[in-house]
Amino acid sequence: MTYLAIFEGRSRGVRRSDLIAALERDWPTAVIHERQGSQESRDVVWSYSEGSQELEGYSHADGTCIYLDSPLGLAARFSIWFRELIPEDIDLVFCDDEYNFSGNIETGMRVDKVAVIAADF
Q1: Whole-model pTM?
Q2: What is the pLDDT of residues 86-121, one digit of tens each?
Q3: Would you say 21 and 85 are in contact if contact means Cβ atoms under 8 Å apart?
Q4: Cα dihedral across residues 111, 107, 62, 6: positive or negative
Q5: Exposed, middle or buried: residue 51 (CB in 10 Å: 0-12, 13-18, 19+)?
Q6: Closest Cα to residue 59, out of 50, 49, 69?
C-alpha cells in the first residue's frame, strides 16, 4: 500500500539536500537515488529493507510530501522520522494515496499511535 506523509507550506518544504543527508545519517542501509525522469513526485527515491519487509520511498520535488510503498509499520516509522525534519508549527498528515484515512503525526509520536490512524480503514 502507498502511504503519504504530507504538509502544506510550499515555502517551507524539506530541501532535497537535507532529505538526502538525513536519509544517509538515519537510514544508512537505504539505497538512495535522485530524480528518476521528470516526475515531480519522484524527486528523491530510496529503498530500504529490514528483514523480510521492504519500503520504496520517494519525495515530491517541492519537499512537502513523501510517498511510502511499504507495510504500515515501516511507513509509520518513516513518517515519524520525516516529522523530525519539519518545524513543529506545521501539521504533518499521514494518509493513504486515496485519502481514505488521515490524521496528524505529532512530534515524539510512537509507531503504534501512527498505525491507529490507519486502523479504521
Answers
A1: 0.90
A2: 988 899 999 998 888 999 999 999 999 999 998 866
A3: no
A4: positive
A5: exposed
A6: 69
pLDDT digits (tens, 9 = 90+) for 7-37: 986 567 899 899 999 999 999 999 998 665 5
Other Cβ atoms closer than 10 A to 5: 27
Cell triple for 56? 520504496
C-alpha grid cell, residue 68: 511510502
What gap in Å lies between CA 24 and CA 118, rounded to an integer? Answer: 28
Q: How far is CA 87 from CA 73, 82, 90, in A?
A: 23, 10, 6
**DSSP, residue by residue, 45-105:** EEEEEETTEEEEEEE-TTSSEEEEES-HHHHHHHHHHHHTTS-TTS-EEEEETT-SSEEEE
